[in-house]
Specification:
Order of helices and strands: EHEHHHEEHEHEEEEHE
Number of domains: 1
Number of strands: 10
Helix content: 25-40%
Mean pLDDT: 88
Number of helices: 7
Oligomer: single chain
Radius of gyration: 17 Å
Largest sheet: 10 strands, mixed
Strand content: 15-25%
Low-confidence stretches: none
Length: 240
C-alpha cells in the first residue's frame, strides 16, 4: 500500500479547503520555499526579497504547528536528493487520490503550493491528461510558454506580482493572461487598468476568466507593511 505523505489534502489547508463544496477535490504539494533546505537551493528563483520576507509558508496552520514546516523541509530535501524518484512518488500518490476521489468530483492538483519549480521538466502532466493542474508562478519564461500554448493543456498558470516585476505583469495582462496581486486595505476594482476579481473566494485559478487581476488579501507576515514592502500594494497609496 502506498503511503500518502507528499500531498496535502483540502481539509488540511486553508487555501485548498475553499474547494470542498465544489465539484473539484484539491490536493497540493507544499515544500519549503526559497533556500529553506539543506542544500540551500533556491526553489523560488524569481521571488523578490519582499516576497521572501512575507512568504505564506508560515501563514495559517503552518504558523501554528512547527511539524508542518519540518515536513515541508523534509520533502524539499527529498526532492533535491532524488528528483526523478520524488516525481515517481508524486505520480503514484496522484493515482491513489484519483481512485479515492468521490464520484461526481474531479481531482485537481497544485504542485507549487509554496515553491516555484518548473515541473514541466518531468513527465507528470502527460501522465494524467484528464487531471487539471494549476499553479502561480513568478517565472516570466514559463508564463510566456503558457500564454503561447506551449505548455500541457491541463496545466494552468497565473502570474504573480513580486513588487519588482511590474513590466512582466503588464506584458502578461496585455497577452491575455492573469496576474495575482496582494493588496492591503481592501481590493480595488481595477489595477493597471484591468478588472480585479476576489482571488480569496476560491483557489481554483483555472476557473477564472481571462485577462484579469486576481486580488488577494494580505495574510500572515504580509500584513506588516514594513516586511511586505513593495510586494503588497497598499490601497491608500495605489496608483493605476
Amino acid at each position: 500500500m502506498i503511503k500518502l505523505e507528499l500531498f496535502t489534502e483540502e481539509k488540511n489547508n486553508t487555501k485548498l479547503a475553499k474547494s470542498q463544496d465544489s465539484p473539484y477535490r484539491s490536493i497540493g504539494l507544499f515544500l519549503s520555499p526559497h533556500r529553506e533546505n539543506n542544500l540551500r537551493v533556491n526553489l523560488c528563483p524569481n521571488a523578490s526579497q519582499a516576497c521572501i520576507a512575507s512568504c505564506l509558508n508560515t501563514a495559517g496552520l503552518a504558523g501554528v504547528f512547527p511539524r508542518i514546516l519540518k515536513a515541508r523541509k523534509r520533502k524539499s530535501n527529498e526532492f533535491l536528493a532524488d528528483r526523478i524518484g520524488f516525481v515517481d512518488r508524486l505520480k503514484k500518490e496522484i493515482e491513489v487520490y484519483k481512485r479515492r476521489t468521490p464520484k461526481g468530483r474531479k481531482l485537481v492538483v497544485r504542485l507549487n503550493g509554496t515553491s516555484d519549480i518548473d515541473f514541466t521538466r518531468y513527465d507528470i502532466f502527460n501522465s494524467f491528461p484528464d487531471t487539471q493542474f494549476y499553479d502561480y508562478t513568478k517565472n516570466p519564461q514559463r508564463m510566456s510558454k503558457f500564454l503561447c500554448g506551449n505548455l500541457p493543456k491541463n496545466y494552468h498558470l497565473t502570474f504573480s506580482f513580486s513588487g519588482e516585476n511590474l513590466i512582466e505583469c503588464q506584458n502578461v495582462l496585455r497577452g491575455g493572461g492573469n496576474v495575482a496581486t496582494v493588496f492591503s486595505g481592501g481590493l480595488p476594482t481595477h489595477w493597471q487598468g484591468y478588472e480585479v476579481i476576489d482571488g480569496d473566494i476560491t483557489d481554483l485559478r483555472f476557473l477564472d476568466k481571462q485577462n484579469v487581476v486576481v486580488g488577494l488579501k494580505a495574510k500572515g507576515k504580509a500584513k506588516n507593511s514594513v516586511i511586505a514592502g513593495s510586494f503588497v500594494i497598499q490601497i491608500g497609496r495605489m496608483k493605476g
